[in-house]
Specification:
The chain has one domain. It contains 1 helix and 5 strands, in the order βββββα. By secondary structure, the protein is mainly beta. The chain is globular and about 35 Å long.
């Protein structure tokens, strides 16, 4: 299993990947007011989303702080790859 950031048209998304599937577990998008960020959750958790973050790096740190990959079994030891991948 891997966790990595991937470029999109308007930002980046955080992906949990295994041999069978890729799951988007977070994302950051550029807006006219900065960056909007969210981390996936299985319940209504509004504090996992924030608008108007100043930089892409700050927005990604916000998403990673929730460790959304830990929503899935056997992923607690994973950490996001530092290299951002191109959209597949």
């Amino acid at each position: 299993m891997q966790v990595y950031w991937e470029h999109t048209k308007i930002g980046q998304r955080l992906v949990l990947s295994n041999e069978n599937q890729n799951e988007m577990i977070g994302g950051v998008r550029k807006t006219k007011n900065g960056f909007d960020a969210f981390a996936k959750t299985f319940s209504m958790t509004p504090e996992r989303a924030r608008k108007g973050i100043i930089t892409m790096d700050e927005a990604k740190e916000f998403v990673e702080s929730f460790k959304p990959w830990e929503l899935y079994p056997e992923t607690s030891s994973l950490k996001p790859d530092k290299l951002v991948r191109d959209l597949e």
